[in-house]
Design a protein that fits this description.
Blueprint (H helix, E strand, L loop, with lengths): L1 H19 L1 H32 L4 E3 L3 H23 L10 H16 L1 E2 H25 L10 H24 L7
Helix pairs in contact: 1-2, 1-5, 3-4, 3-6, 4-5
């Protein structure tokens, strides 16, 4: 469980470095971007290894209701990530689209995975996303809502999101964590 917690902590520190220590980050210049990138890549590796090797205590397991809710929240998360790239209409209605996606994904996974390793991983990432939104809003203010969209862009976003969702389900199963049984 230590590797998992270390991975979540490293992820959080790497992402919040610019917000919490802007002068130190600025002094690093372009090298800082590489350091942060390496830290984030390392954190993902630690989270994967830590989650796979964690001795965990179970409080509840998946059931039909939590599986369905997780599926909806995960699809919403993937849709929001795709929308952040395609700049579809939803990006004009939700501030911090990618962080909202992380919150949706993490919440869904917390509901369906009732074990201590999931609490550390998904709870930690949910806390990071919430803290990030608070810090960004405090430092930069809340961005104005605006997005221009078209029916073609909306359809493209939906199609890509469905394809990504299908790929995630497939890869999830290949990694040993089948989504539907």
């Amino acid at each position: 469980m230590g590797l998992l917690a270390l991975g979540v902590l490293l992820w959080t520190v790497a992402h919040l470095f610019k917000r919490l220590a802007p002068e130190a980050r600025a002094k690093l210049g372009g090298v800082g971007r590489g350091i942060v990138t390496l830290a984030i890549a390392g954190s993902v590796g630690l989270m994967i290894l830590g989650y796979q090797s964690a001795e965990t205590q179970y409080f509840w397991g998946p059931n039909t209701g939590t599986i369905i809710l997780n599926s909806i929240l995960t699809f919403l998360a993937l849709y929001l990530f795709v929308a952040s790239v395609t700049k579809s209409g939803i990006t004009g209605k939700i501030r911090h689209v990618q962080l909202t996606a992380v919150k949706s994904w993490a919440l869904g996974h917390l509901l369906v995975n009732g074990d201590s390793a999931a609490f550390v991983l998904f709870g930690g990432l949910l806390a990071w996303a919430v803290i990030s939104v608070i810090l960004i809003n405090k430092q930069d203010g809340k961005p104005a809502f605006s997005a221009n969209s078209s029916p073609v862009k909306e359809l493209l976003t939906a199609v890509i999101a469905v394809a990504v969702y299908g790929a995630v389900i497939y890869l999830h199963g290949m990694a040993g964590y089948p989504v539907y049984g």
